Each structure stands twice: as C-alpha cells, then as structure tokens.
Amino acid sequence: MTVIAPFDPWKGPLCSCPPKYSFSAYTGCPHACLYCYISSYIPRPFECRAKKSPVERLLKELRKVDPKLHISIANSSDPYPPVEAYLKLTRRALRELLSRGYKVQLITKSDLVVRDLDLIRNGNCSVSITVTTLDERLASKLEPFAPSPKRRLKALKTLARSGVPCSARLDPIIPGINDEGIEELVESLAKAGVSHIVSSTYKAKADSFERVMKAYPKLRGRLYELYWVEGTRVGRSRLLPRKLRYGLLKSVKELVEENGMTFATCREGFPNLQSGETCDGSHLIPNRRIQPKLNLF
C-alpha cells in the first residue's frame, strides 16, 4: 500500500481537478462530520490512526512522483488531527517536501496548521481551510469534533497576513441546514484574506444521510424527496436536482466575486461557474526557486 498516489484514479465523471497527488500521514478523521463521505469506504472512519512510517515511505515513493504536479495533503483525512500536535507526522512530511521544492496544498479544518507557518511561508505551499457556517451551534452539530469556525477564520487571517496564499472550501451546502448565512460567511472569508472559494452541495450517501437525518429529523421528508425522488445518482452518491444545485451555486459565485475573490464548484458539472484558474485553488501555490535537498533514498 502506497502513501502517495495520483488523485482520483477512478476518474470521477464530475471531477475537474488538475492532475495532482494525494498524501496523508493518517487514516480516518476524528472530526466526525455528519455529512462525511469517507464512512462509505474506510473502516472505522472517525477513528484517527497514524500510518506506519508514513514519512519514511513517502521519501522512498517520491522517486515515482512528477515534480511538476502538486501534492494535496490531505483528501480523505485531515492532516491536522489532534494527535498531530505531538506526533508531528504532517510537519515532518511537509518539511521534507518543501525543502525539496515540491508544490503542496494543505486542506484542513484545523487551526493547528498555523503551527507550521515557519515551513509554509517559505515553501511552495498554499492552504485551504473548510468553513461551512459561522453559526457555532450549527457547526458543533454538523462537525462535532472539528475546531470552531471562529478558530478557522482566525487561522486563515494569520496565514494570509503572513503572506500565505489561502483558499476556502464552503462545502457541503445542505438545503435547510447551512444554506442561510452564506453572505456573511463569504464576507468574513474575504476579510480574512482568502483569495479563492470552492463550493459544492451535499452529495448524499446512505450512511451519511442517516447521520444527518438523525440530527435533523424534521427535514427527513423534504431532503429524501430532493435527493432520492427528484435528485440524480452519480456513482454511489445522490445529488440534488440539477436546477436547484445550479441556482444555489450561482448565487454563491455572485457573492464571492462581489467580494473580490475567484470561485469554483467541486464535482457539480458546472464549468461555466468557475472563475478561478483551477477548481481546487492549487493555482495559488507559489513557484519559489528553492535549492532542493539532495534526494537520497
């Protein structure tokens, strides 16, 4: 089992990401977000486990990596779970990658990323932080063990003020749950120094849908109708009706661009809504000339 691999090897029909690699030092994510898709294919999805010797394995596998492509850390788990505070596996991997000149995009819900500011601001690295709502009570219900929105916004502000290019993920949007207050959220992200926003609607899977419905039982009838009756199936996910998805995301795009940022959707099939150079925000990664370390494997 490799620790670094091409992203989306199954070539999802709605994925518009540029070619890139995916790496994570951990398996599972302790944030336990109700809407999370990893529970459909990872055993014990919300139990975070460090992979065996991930940094050492990463160094061995780098010989197969195209240095022109960036490395995304991480996609199916957060690179900054609480145990990272003392294990420092992401920090070690980041130091090795950035000192060799590799391009890295960090994707997280944790403000612990600020700890590694000394590495990030001197390397070819950008940061993307997910913020789904400013409502602290709502966030604690949807994302029970993730850092609060206030902490994430503070992290974005600290990073941006230190010269780190930042993007944000405003996703997933779930009708009736977090589709209110988006204007204020977008304005707050702009004030924090975010340059690009990626947004998407909730893609329902049977298990995640049940978690969301258990938390919001009064919405079961309406959301079941939207996803399983009126919606469409893509792979193993159920999507909102296309017209509804387009309307929601078009309104977010307008707010984003009014606030001076670029916009893109994620796995929605609406390329005309993209105003950023890339959908994932990887175009923000700096291209600094870094004297690479001798690659001794």
Describe this structure in words.
It contains ten helices and twelve strands. Helix 1 runs parallel beside helix 3 (89-99) and helix 6 (149-161) packs parallel to helix 7 (182-192). It is globular, with a radius of gyration of 18 Å. Strands 1-2-5-6-7-8-9-12 form an eight-stranded mixed sheet, with helices on one face. Strands 3-4 form a two-stranded antiparallel ribbon. Strands 10-11 form a two-stranded antiparallel sheet. It has a single domain, classed as Aldolase class I (TIM Barrel, Alpha-Beta Barrel), CATH 3.20.20. The protein is α/β, with parallel strands linked by helices. 32% of the residues lie in helices and 17% in strands. The model has no long low-confidence stretch (mean pLDDT 95). Strand 10 and strand 11 form a beta hairpin. The longest helix has 17 residues, at 242-258.
What's the structural blueprint in terms of helices and strands?
Elements: E1 4-6, E2 20-23, E3 26-27, E4 49-50, H1 54-61, E5 70-73, H2 84-87, H3 89-99, E6 104-108, H4 117-120, E7 125-130, H5 136-142, H6 149-161, E8 166-173, H7 182-192, E9 196-201, H8 206-215, H9 220-229, E10 232-234, E11 237-239, H10 242-258, E12 262-265
Parallel strand pairs: 2-5, 5-6, 6-7, 7-8, 8-9, 9-12
Antiparallel strand pairs: 1-2, 3-4, 10-11
Helix pairs in contact: 1-3, 6-7
